[in-house]
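Please review this one:
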Amino acid sequence: MENLREELYKRILQYGTEDKRVLELSQKLDPHIVKEQKKI
């Protein structure tokens, strides 16, 4: 999950927040975020 998060930040800086590649990576990260939030 940490690797995906780092890659997301890199892509946001490189392409901006509305680029398709950034959105796709963000969607891959979503299930992991939801899983972590359920633990809280």
About this structure: The mean pLDDT is 91. The chain has one domain: 2-39.
